[in-house]
Amino acid sequence: MLQLRGRLHLDLLIDNETMGVRDAQAPLSLSKRSGESYQHVLLKLLGFVLFYHPELQVEVSAGQHHKPDLVRFDARGEPVQWVECGLIKRRKLDRISARNKLTFIDVIKATETEMRSYARSTRGHLRAPERVRYFGFRRGFVDELAEAVYDHATVRARVTGPRWDALVALIDDIELHTPVVCELGQGE
């Protein structure tokens, strides 16, 4: 996987059937912080595309102990959607889901296998599992995205289906496809 230095500035053109979005233009700047992997940065990009909403924000404090990778707030300033990408400890996920009673908590993993394994590991360990959703992609997709995306790229992204069925990204002449696998948290 390529390594990112500094910031990634992207011009996104998003069609997202799941979110009811068509032809949204969204500039997005993502920074790779010290100790952060390029994969983590790309998972934030994918989260932004999957859950696109004009009010979705990247790396903004929610006024809590934990800081989300992506978040969207209601009119009172309370999170209505909290997105965590990559590595997240079960204890942290439990605290976030227990505290934010009106919030969807979305966990994004690089692969379906990683997502399913993590979702299984949280069973019986979350006080509010019913609001947690887990997402993953086909093996190799994030690595292919890393090879295709570059600073100042224009990314045309399309999410299809009523429940995030698939994602297609077009960067220059490179078209990448993946199913999007979603697993809902279960009440205990």
Describe this protein's structure.
- The protein has helices at 38-50, 90-99, 112-122, 141-148; strands spanning 7-16, 21-31, 57-58, 70-73, 79-85, 104-108, 132-137, 154-160, 166-171, 174-184.
- The protein is built from four helices and ten strands.
- It starts with 6 loop residues before the first strand and ends with a strand.
- The longest helix has 13 residues, at 38-50.
- α1 (38-50) crosses α4.
- It has a ten-stranded mixed β-sheet, with helices on both faces.
- It is globular, with a radius of gyration of 16 Å.
- By secondary structure, the protein is an alpha/beta fold.
- The mean pLDDT is 93.
- The protein has a single domain, classed as Restriction endonuclease-like alpha-beta roll fold.
- A hairpin with a 5-residue loop joins β4 and β5 (79-85).
List keywords for this structure.
Restriction endonuclease-like alpha-beta roll fold; 4 helices; alpha/beta; 188 residues
